[in-house]
Every structure is written in C-alpha cells, then in structure tokens.
Design a protein that fits this description.
This protein is α+β, with helices and mostly antiparallel strands. The chain has three helices and two strands; from the N terminus they run H-E-E-H-H. The protein has a two-stranded antiparallel sheet. A hairpin with a 2-residue loop joins strand 1 and strand 2.
C-alpha cells in the first residue's frame, strides 16, 4: 500500500492497516529507523489505570478527599 507524504510530513495510514492493527484516533505509535526503513509500531498500554492516574487536579490531598467521601468529620 502506498501513501503520499503531505507538505507538513503527515502520512495517512491506510484504513485496512489501521483496522487490522487496531490503530484509532489518539492511538500512540512509535517510529524507528532501521537500515533506511521507517518502522511504525503501535504502542500497547499494559496498564489502563496509569493512563488516568493523576488526571484530576482537586487542589487537596488524597486523605482530605477520602475523608469527605467517607463522611469523616
């Protein structure tokens, strides 16, 4: 399968390959060069929890948040 490199260096991965490899919007891919070949590999997240760990910025400690959830006074 061929693709054309756009002016800004972007390439569209052909849909059959995206479907077969499970590459969707926001998938992470890794690029490597090997003897003049460009190798693209889909990065598989092993721990989905680590992806969202620390995403909430509440401005309070975890202990304070847990105390509120438990109803501690």
């Amino acid at each position: 399968m061929n693709a054309i490199v756009a002016e800004r260096g972007q390439v569209t991965i052909p849909k059959p390959l995206r479907d077969r490899l499970g590459i969707t919007s926001h998938s992470i891919v890794d690029f490597k060069e090997d003897a003049g070949r460009l190798i693209l590999t889909k990065v598989v997240e092993r721990d989905p929890v680590s992806r969202v760990m620390g995403c909430l910025r509440l401005g309070r400690s975890t202990d304070d948040v847990l105390s509120d959830i438990r109803g501690d006074k």
